[in-house]
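To illustrate the input format used throughout this study, we show a single complete record. The first block contains the structure-token representation of the backbone; no residue identities are included at this stage. The design step must infer an amino acid for every position from geometry alone.
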């Protein structure tokens, strides 16, 4: 694993982690969930090795040593990732993201369609459409613990204040999720816990970005997008995948029956296999 810092023109730093041949031009570009340290989980590293691809994992601003960027959007964070990829010499990529990383993988494809040949978005939230209700068919509908995102609708200061007393609700996860965390995907939970060392800025700014404009439109995403989503997800409900699919030019919705927010990661490998064929 190689860690590196890319200094942007305005002085901020973005940390990334790489595996695979440093001179390989084709890569999986990984956008981790919220929160994260930027280090890719071991199962993902194994998938990249199996597919013969370099792996570049991006720590968004405020996470894992990357400089915080209050007021950032999904699109601006994706532009930060593009700067990392340019410095690393990546010229062809699968943009992949999990949970909070999903929007950033999609945005990368919108911004750089010549670079991104395919997208894999696992358990990704959809763009916010202005609906604030927690019942019915609204953006928050079906979320077990929407408190942080609801606070983010009131602005960054409100979300930061919420972070001071935020308590994890274990009922967000299904029994199949807890089983996944006890298995190979335990690395995701461990990484989320390790992210606490970097403070709340990353998660706060992620949530604010999710409930404001992404800065790109789904209709602008030219590459095919594989949407992997569990039908039982209580963190980002399945309806979000349906919303994204309805707005994309070339979606493939890969529903995982009964999976929750973590168990759905079992579908990452098959989706990457499919994306590898699309990459060419």
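Output of the design step:
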């Amino acid at each position: 694993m190689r860690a590196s810092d890319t200094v942007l023109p305005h002085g901020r730093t973005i940390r990334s982690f790489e595996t695979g041949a440093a001179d390989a031009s084709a890569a999986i570009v990984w956008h981790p969930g919220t929160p994260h340290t930027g280090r890719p989980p071991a199962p993902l590293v194994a998938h990249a090795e199996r597919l013969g691809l370099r792996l570049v994992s991006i720590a968004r601003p405020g996470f894992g040593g990357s400089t915080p960027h209050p007021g950032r959007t999904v699109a601006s964070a994706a532009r930060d990732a593009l700067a990392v990829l340019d410095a690393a010499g990546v010229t062809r990529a699968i943009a992949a993201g999990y949970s909070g990383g999903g929007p950033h993988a999609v945005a990368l494809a919108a911004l750089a369609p010549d670079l991104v040949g395919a997208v894999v978005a696992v358990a990704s939230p959809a763009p916010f459409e202005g609906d604030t209700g927690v019942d019915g068919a609204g953006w928050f509908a079906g979320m077990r613990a929407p408190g942080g995102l609801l606070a983010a609708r009131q602005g960054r200061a409100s979300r930061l204040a919420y972070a001071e007393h935020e308590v994890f609700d274990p009922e967000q996860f299904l029994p199949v999720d807890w089983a996944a965390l006890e298995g190979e995907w335990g690395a995701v939970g461990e990484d989320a816990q390790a992210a606490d060392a970097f403070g709340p800025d990353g998660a706060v700014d992620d949530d604010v970005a999710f409930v404001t404009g992404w800065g790109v439109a789904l209709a602008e995403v030219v590459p095919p997008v594989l949407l992997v989503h569990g039908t039982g997800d209580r963190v980002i409900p399945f309806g979000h995948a349906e919303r994204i699919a309805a707005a994309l030019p070339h979606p493939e919705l890969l529903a995982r029956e009964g999976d929750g927010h973590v168990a759905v990661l079992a579908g990452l490998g098959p989706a990457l296999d499919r994306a590898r064929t699309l990459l060419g």
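Structural context for interpreting the output: The chain has a mean pLDDT of 95. The CA atoms of residues 38 and 59 lie 4 Å apart.
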